[in-house]
Amino acid sequence: MGGPGEPPEGPPEGAPGSGEDEYRSVVFDESFVRAARLQEYSAQERIADHAPAVRHRPPLRRGLTRQALLLVVLIALAFGTAVYMGVRNPYQSPAVRRPVEPLRMTLVPLAPQGAVPGATDIEALYAHSPAAHYRIGAAGIALPSYRRTAHFSDSEVFSALNSAKEYLVRSSLYPEVLTGQQVQPVRGLIDGAQLEQFDESFAHPAADGRHAPTGWLIRFDPARVALAGERIRVQGTLVAAEADSATLEVTADHTFVYALRPAGADTGAPASLFTVRRELHFRFDRDALRTHQLQLVTAAVQAGPLSCAEDSANHLRPLLAGQTAKDGGPAGTDPFATGGVPALCGVLATGAQPRV
Asked: Is the dihedral of CA 109, 115, 121, 126 positive or negative?
């Protein structure tokens, strides 16, 4: 039963003054209580110490929440990154590239003093010549010891030397290049800024010191000459040096000795030796090192036995076994003409020929 004045089932639900609903709006949670600045002493504390009913609490020290601390760290990292990127800009302006110069070339024919010696035994020809101890093919184009420079790493110096060697191999040893069948193996290594000059040299050959195919590569007139063997003798040096902070230069000085026969002759026909000395000056910037291309700056070629009266700009036309130089020297040079180069010719020393 309910109390006096109450229905037997108890007070109706939701009626005013019924249970906890009456105080629901004034119930304080734990965080509110902890944050209160005033705290009431307990009855025992008031009796023992005769203290006032309440005391002041020190303000609650609140630390940074984990989320706030993380936000501060992220802001600091972002600021530090911005400062670093401002000091070390990854998009630095590239070094100014040196203008690509056109290739300057000279070819000096070396005329024999008598008949060109020859023999059917090619190895005997080599054995009795100054090339007897030369190495064969690419083995004769050895890379030297190298080390980094002030502005280029070991790998960059190696790349420059290796590219120069590859150019020498393709332009002096490839049979398809030597016989005039192809130029693409050499063209593929030339810097794009020199390709116009390269192509013009083969489209319109000229002995003007700029557009002679034989300045870019070694090739023989296939109508007159054939290779008597592919075991070409080679000896020379490669030297790398830093020209400036953005440029590496490589100087190549090599002598190539070829065994030749008349075009169409059988293997029993006498062969003779033909010697070409090439002094080439290469230039590399960092773009060239990255793309494995090169600039050929100068090419100085001496070749013989040749006749000074022959035009050797487009093809080399060697004198073969038993032949002698034609009468007459090189074409006359006009000192009043501009844009050309003086006609040069030399004499092939007797000691440079095989002693057979």
From this structure: negative
Q: How many CA atoms lie within 13 A of 262 on its CB side?
A: 12
* Residue-wise pLDDT tens digits, 95-126: 556 678 899 999 999 999 899 999 999 999 99
Interatomic CA distance for residues 160 and 283, integer angstroms: 8
Which of 30-44, 153-167, 227-241 comes out lowest in average pLDDT? 30-44
What is the rounded distance in angstroms from the CA atom of residue 150 to the CA atom of residue 194?
A: 28
CB atoms within 10 A of CB 266: 7
Residue 348 CA to residue 356 CA, distance in Å, equals 16
Whole-angstrom distance, CA of residue 95 vs CA of residue 102 = 21
Round to whole Å and give the CA distance between 293 and 304.
30
pLDDT tens digits for 276-293?
Answer: 999 999 999 999 999 999
Half-sphere exposure of 343 (CA within 13 A, CB side): 17
Q: Which residue reads 């192509």 in tokens?
A: 199
Residue type, 84: Y
pLDDT band for position 194 (50/70/90)? Answer: very high
The string of DSSP letters for 255-270 reads EEEEEEEETT--TTS-
- Please tell me the distance from the alpha carbon of residue 11 to that of residue 14, in angstroms, as a whole number: 9
Name the E strands within 11-103: 38-40, 54-56
Residues of the chain above pLDDT 90, percent: 57
Rama region for 131: left / alpha / beta (φ>0; ψ in -120 to 50; rest): alpha
Q: What is the pTM assigned to this prediction? A: 0.72
**Residues, the chain, total?**
356
Backbone torsions φ then ψ of 347, nearest 5 degrees: -110, 130
